[in-house]
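I'll show a sample.
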Amino acid sequence: MCLFDDCAFHEATQLDQFVLGRVQRMRKKGKRGYVEYVQSLSLFERPQDVEVLFLRYSHIDDRTEDIIARPLFPLICKVNLQIDKSTDTYGLQESDVVVIKEFLVALQPLQSWIRAQRAAIQLCKGMMHKGI
């Protein structure tokens, strides 16, 4: 994941919700505050001290909401938005929908974010090996 990538984040207030947004800034917590972080991040190995500031997309219209600071742990996956020319809106690719649904389904009975993340990562790794 890099700056300006579109990503899906778990909505902490509800188990079955996620939000989409664009990564605007990444920063790493140091001994004397935050330092800009410009290296790309692996979704499989996430540093604990990196925070992502992302611009949350609105699902109602093309306006965006405020920039929200989040740690990396609620990040579900990087997504590829594609335009639907008939409705002139953006939507998720089917492979991204599968990964997000797997995460949310795994989260429901377990109510453990870490276990759900591992299940989604395993699915994502399997899809990468199959070339999806």
Notes: The beta strands are 6-10, 18-30, 33-36, 50-57, 64-71, 75-78, 81-84, 89-92. Residues 6-130 form one domain.
